[in-house]
């Protein structure tokens, strides 16, 4: 329920502390993760990471969080409500791994120069930024015609496969910290428990996790991977660093443009859909933000960060309903931006990496994933639940393929070398995972939209989504790991067949003229027949 205000909105309310510690630690986890990728995977020198890349990343995140705090303030003034929550934003987590493992690492390995890999990453973000800015004007139309079950279902799939699973696995690999911290968060954010003097649950979890890690070290237990040696060496990175233009390095990566476009354009489209999903999620939570301005802002701040040396794209985050539910309003977003600026410009992140066990922060990401998955069911018609489930499957397939690829890569081989027939004989349908999991965000959206429209008996609209699926598949945006012509022609042809069938249903089905209106008391279609 919204709350009216009679004066200017408050920039900071008590609930912003909860959201700040929760969202701030979320951002911190991502910053620590990308720092570890640059140091230990790409082997970039510390002076480049802490002196140039992270300061640029920090400025980009500062601009983004300040802008979304401003949008929330304007919405609060316009609507006269005091419960408006700013959109969360930060480094796109899936893209973080894609740009490192698909773009930067192969090029760094082929050239023997990690700087060349960094330059390719900058060019990748440069291309994606313009895809976002141009796409921002198309996205509102797509959002208008797409069922909410498809938008939120695709988002739920991302949250389960790429937001929730990794922290859940981390928690059970280091359970003394992870599970205890998870219980601390759930007790407060779901159970309403208030800790001593109202200390935010996120801060309590971090403090308890750090206490367990360092306390255990005194007794010979290595919880959380903490060590005095790592902490001591981390202080070498202290010092003020201000981002400077890196245009030469940005355009230096254009020599790899052919490789970059293969992923930059599909993932730019992924960003469009993901941002639409997240704006839809915020609207379902009561806060309506203009999709075009959101996408354009992501493109502009990503471009600024790229030109200053940051090879990671900015994106509106999953999680608005979660931060709003624990009291976040306007100030938490701006405060997070200020925090990131300080951490990145003064070299503090290296110390944070050595001081706080990441597993103490992982439960926060799992909590957000739980909320987003739940919202896909809570904020859509009850009879659209099968469509939501269908939206989850491509994301799970994409995650499964990624795990197989990483495992085989660690063994020095790949699926093609092992043989798809051998894998299939062992029950691993790798090619199926490859087809279903490639372009998963678009695949989720199209499949769920078709299912939701069929449930509503709007067969012509369902046929339109199937036809769109055929076009996207034909050009490699779905069910293919690279854009091109007729990459997976049989899948594209299958979507055309579905479109023809559904157009026939729209024309000849007696019930097509009366779309079914979802009611809470309705049973799932065909449930009785299936029993």
Tag the structure with descriptive keywords.
single chain, two-stranded antiparallel ribbon, 2 domains, mainly alpha, 531 residues
Overall number of structural domains: 2
What is the radius of gyration? Answer: 23 Å
Overall mean pLDDT score?
85
Low-confidence stretches: 518-531
Describe, in short, the structure shown.
This protein is mainly alpha-helical and 531 residues long. The chain has 24 helices and two strands.
Structure in words:
The protein has a two-stranded antiparallel ribbon. Helix content is 70%, strand content 1%. The protein has 2 domains: 15-378, no CATH class; 382-513, no CATH class. Mean pLDDT is 85; it is low at 518-531. The protein has helices spanning 15-41, 46-79, 93-111, 114-135, 139-145, 148-173, 175-189, 201-218, 228-234, 247-252, 257-284, 291-307, 320-325, 331-345, 349-355, 362-378, 385-410, 415-418, 420-425, 430-437, 440-455, 459-474, 489-508, 527-530, and strands spanning 89-91, 314-316. The radius of gyration is 23 Å and the shape is globular.
Question: Which helices and strands occur, and which strands form pairs?
Answer:
Elements: H1 15-41, H2 46-79, E1 89-91, H3 93-111, H4 114-135, H5 139-145, H6 148-173, H7 175-189, H8 201-218, H9 228-234, H10 247-252, H11 257-284, H12 291-307, E2 314-316, H13 320-325, H14 331-345, H15 349-355, H16 362-378, H17 385-410, H18 415-418, H19 420-425, H20 430-437, H21 440-455, H22 459-474, H23 489-508, H24 527-530
Antiparallel strand pairs: 1-2
């Amino acid at each position: 329920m919204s709350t009216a205000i009679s004066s200017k909105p408050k920039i900071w309310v008590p609930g912003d502390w909860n959201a700040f510690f929760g969202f701030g630690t979320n951002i911190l986890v991502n910053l620590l993760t990308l720092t570890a990728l640059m140091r230990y995977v790409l082997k970039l020198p510390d002076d480049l990471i802490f002196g140039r890349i992270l300061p640029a990343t920090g400025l980009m995140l500062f601009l983004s969080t300040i802008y979304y705090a401003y949008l929330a303030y304007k919405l609060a003034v316009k609507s006269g409500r005091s419960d408006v929550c700013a959109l969360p934003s930060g480094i796109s987590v899936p893209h973080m791994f894609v740009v490192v493992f698909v773009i930067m690492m192969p090029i760094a390995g082929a050239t023997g120069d990690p700087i060349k890999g960094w330059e390719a990453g900058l060019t990748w973000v440069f291309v994606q930024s313009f895809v976002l800015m141009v796409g921002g004007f198309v996205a509102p139309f797509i959002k208008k015609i797409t069922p909410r079950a498809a938008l939120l279902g695709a988002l739920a799939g991302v949250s389960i496969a790429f937001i929730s699973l990794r922290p859940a696995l981390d928690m059970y690999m280091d359970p003394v910290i992870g599970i205890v911290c998870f219980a601390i968060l759930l007790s407060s954010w779901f159970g309403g428990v208030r800790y001593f003097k109202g200390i935010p649950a996120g801060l309590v979890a971090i403090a308890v996790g750090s206490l367990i890690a360092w306390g255990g070290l005194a007794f010979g237990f290595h919880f959380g991977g903490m060590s005095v040696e790592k902490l001591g060496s981390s202080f070498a990175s202290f010092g003020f660093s201000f981002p400077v233009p890196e245009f030469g390095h940005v355009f230096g990566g254009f020599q790899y443009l052919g490789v970059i476009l293969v992923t930059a354009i599909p993932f730019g489209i992924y960003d469009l859909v993901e941002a639409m999903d997240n704006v839809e999620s915020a609207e379902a939570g009561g806060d309506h933000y203009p999709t075009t301005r959101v996408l354009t802002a992501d493109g502009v701040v990503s471009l600024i960060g790229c030109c200053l040396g940051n090879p990671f794209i900015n994106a509106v985050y999953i999680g608005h309903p979660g931060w709003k539910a624990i009291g976040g309003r306007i100030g938490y977003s701006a405060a997070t931006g200020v925090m990131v600026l300080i951490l990145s410009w003064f070299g503090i992140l290296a110390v944070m990496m050595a001081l706080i066990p990441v597993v103490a922060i992982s439960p926060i990401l799992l909590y957000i994933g739980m909320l987003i998955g739940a919202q896909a069911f809570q904020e859509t018609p009850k009879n659209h639940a099968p469509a939501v489930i269908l939206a989850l499957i491509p994301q799970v397939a994409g995650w499964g393929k990624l795990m197989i690829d990483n495992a085989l890569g660690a063994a020095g081989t790949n699926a093609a070398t092992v043989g798809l027939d051998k894998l299939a004989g062992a029950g691993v349908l790798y090619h199926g995972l490859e087809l279903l999991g490639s372009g998963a965000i678009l695949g989720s959206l199209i499949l769920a939209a078709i299912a939701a429209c069929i449930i509503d008996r709007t067969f012509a609209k369902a046929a339109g989504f199937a036809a769109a699926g055929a076009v996207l598949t034909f050009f490699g945006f779905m069910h293919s790991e690279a854009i091109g012509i007729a990459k997976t022609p049989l899948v594209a042809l299958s979507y055309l067949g579905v479109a023809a069938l559904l157009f026939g249903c729209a024309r000849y089905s007696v019930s097509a003229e009366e779309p079914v209106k979802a009611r809470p008391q309705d049973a799932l279609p065909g449930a009785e027949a299936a029993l």
